[in-house]
């Protein structure tokens, strides 16, 4: 990782002008947030990598992607074109500090059973191809993704979980029965969340549908199962929001929402919040349950005076260097077919998971979103729904800053005018204060706008003009 940072710094040393911080790509077709990522070093953004579909003026049998690497000031470092079949779809692109991994997938109808073919490519830091492999698996639709293992390889999450080296040599394969989500990966361990859907309890008095989560720990070298921790008991079901892995002490901090077994519905109100500290063998070292009716009762009584039926959805959980925990979310309520997102809410808790303060930030406008297609029989987990792509909430991203002593959280801040767009950037400083900056980029109905993490003190704004087929990227300074 140090070598790529040095490469970036050396490259910048040869740039005479340091004021230009934007780049325009004129021949792109689509821009998707899943096609980009950040090059990180010591929790600081030191560069960007992106994959864009190029506009073809000829009737070519293949489509062309541009794989682009930029430094922290958006200057181009390197690029390469990747040719793929027309019916292929890009799933994910990741960087592990030594190599980039790119995953494409397509449905394969050639055999007796409908399968999904995965095409994996890997590149070194100079975008020289290291490896290529193809793998057929059961159809898993949009749940397929690639996860990086620091410096040494990748994990393919499809119906089968498979580990590859940087050169894409397969090392082991693990057959899983239920859907999984990655929580962490390092040089020794792999943590995953197993989600068993459409399960019913064996208790005669409880026939409600619920979803059993299990935290799985595997040996990263062999794939052997080391621990399996069920995240439910007779009273509560635990829905993890985030798992923070402590590589020094080999322990996991699991944060999330508590539910009773008869309220596991889309947008339903949870019972409270939980925190588990678990060692790598699966032993629970600490368990903290904060219920709305006890720990947060005073806050709810005050809120009830102004809002009825208020619920919370937490998008991310950050822990600053001093151990303070911040839950970043939005207030919302739901009618039969619409969701109303209210103010931004940030819960501040100490390292023992005790509530210290609740910070509320008002948005300029409240917007109603239709919830067509969501019903009470669906899984209540809303993490995927919180993205800007789905538009159910206004949250965009959050990141630690100032070497872990502060953070920023970015939200869409709706305006009355349809011809303008505005973002609210919340900044928590090392002095333990909150500041707010509102940024209003140029905008028309033909422009898709995405904001992402950037170097310290900035946010990255990408705007794609569908009429001109032009992509503009710029770094905008946060004025706090």
User: Treating each run of at least 4 consecutive H or I residues as one helix, how many helices?
Assistant: 2
Q: What is the gyration radius calculated from CA atoms? A: 23 Å
- Report the mean per-residue pLDDT as an integer: 81
Termini separation: 30 Å
Q: Quick one: how many beta strands?
A: 34
Shape, per Cα inertia axes? globular
Helix content: under 10%
Oligomer: single chain
What structural class do helix, strand and pairing data support? Answer: mainly beta
Extract low-pLDDT stretches.
Answer: 1-20, 199-209, 376-380
For the largest beta-sheet, the strand count, sense and barrel status come to: 5 strands, antiparallel
Strand-residue fraction?
A: over 45%
Search tags:
480 residues; mainly beta; five-stranded antiparallel β-sheet; disordered N terminus
Helix and strand arrangement:
Blueprint: H1 2-13, E1 22-25, E2 28-30, E3 36-41, E4 44-54, E5 62-71, E6 76-85, E7 89-95, E8 100-108, E9 115-123, E10 129-138, E11 145-149, E12 153-157, E13 160-165, E14 170-175, E15 179-185, E16 189-200, E17 209-219, E18 225-230, E19 236-246, E20 251-260, E21 272-279, E22 284-291, H2 297-303, E23 311-319, E24 325-334, E25 338-349, E26 355-361, E27 367-370, E28 395-401, E29 406-412, E30 423-428, E31 434-439, E32 447-453, E33 458-465, E34 470-477
Antiparallel strand pairs: 1-34, 2-4, 3-4, 4-5, 5-6, 7-8, 8-9, 9-10, 11-12, 12-13, 13-14, 15-16, 16-17, 17-18, 19-20, 20-21, 21-22, 23-24, 24-25, 25-26, 25-27, 28-29, 29-30, 30-31, 32-33, 33-34
């Amino acid at each position: 990782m140090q070598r790529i940072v040095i490469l970036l710094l050396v490259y910048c040393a040869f740039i005479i002008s340091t004021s230009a911080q934007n780049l325009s790509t004129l021949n792109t077709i689509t821009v998707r947030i899943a096609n980009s990522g950040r090059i990180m070093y010591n929790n600081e953004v030191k560069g960007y990598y992106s994959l864009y579909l190029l506009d073809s003026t000829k009737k070519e049998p293949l489509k062309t992607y541009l794989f682009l690497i930029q430094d922290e000031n958006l200057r181009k470092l390197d690029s390469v074109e990747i040719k793929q079949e027309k019916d292929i779809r890009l799933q994910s692109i990741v960087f592990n500090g030594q190599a980039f991994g790119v995953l494409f997938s397509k449905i394969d109808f050639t055999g007796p059973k409908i399968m999904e073919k995965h095409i994996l490519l890997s590149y070194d830091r100079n975008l020289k191809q290291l490896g290529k492999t193809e793998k057929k698996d059961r159809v898993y639709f949009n749940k397929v993704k690639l996860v990086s293992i620091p410096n040494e390889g990748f994990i393919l999450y499809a119906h089968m979980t498979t580990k590859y080296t940087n050169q894409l040599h397969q090392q082991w394969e693990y057959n899983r029965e239920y859907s999984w989500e990655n929580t962490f990966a390092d040089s020794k361990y792999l943590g995953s969340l197993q989600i068993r859907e459409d399960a019913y309890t064996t208790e005669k008095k409880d026939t409600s549908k619920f979803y059993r989560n299990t935290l799985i720990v595997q040996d990263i070298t062999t794939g052997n199962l080391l621990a399996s921790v069920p995240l439910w008991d007779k009273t509560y079901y635990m829905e993890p929001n985030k798992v923070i892995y402590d590589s020094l002490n080999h322990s996991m901090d699991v944060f999330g929402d508590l539910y009773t077994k008869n309220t596991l519905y889309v947008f339903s109100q949870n019972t409270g919040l939980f925190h588990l500290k678990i060692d790598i063998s699966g032993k629970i070292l600490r368990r903290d349950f904060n219920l709305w009716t006890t720990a947060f009762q005073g806050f709810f009584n005050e809120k009830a005076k102004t809002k009825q039926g208020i619920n919370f959805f937490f998008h991310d959980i950050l822990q600053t260097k001093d151990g303070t925990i911040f839950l970043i979310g939005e207030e919302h309520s739901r009618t039969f077919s619409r969701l109303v997102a209210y103010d931004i809410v940030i819960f501040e808790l100490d390292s023992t998971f005790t509530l210290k303060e609740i910070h509320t930030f008002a948005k300029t406008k409240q917007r109603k979103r239709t919830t067509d297609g969501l019903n009470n029989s669906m899984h209540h987990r809303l993490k995927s729904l919180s993205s800007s792509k789905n538009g159910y909430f206004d949250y965009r991203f959050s990141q630690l800053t100032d070497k872990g002593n502060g953070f920023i959280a970015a939200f869409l801040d709706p305006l009355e005018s349809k011809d303008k767009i505005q973002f609210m950037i919340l900044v928590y400083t090392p002095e333990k204060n909150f500041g707010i900056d509102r940024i209003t980029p140029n905008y028309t109905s033909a422009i898709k706008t995405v904001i992402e993490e950037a170097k310290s003190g900035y946010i990255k704004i990408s705007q794609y003009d569908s009429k001109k087929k032009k992509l503009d990227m710029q770094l905008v300074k946060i004025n706090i």
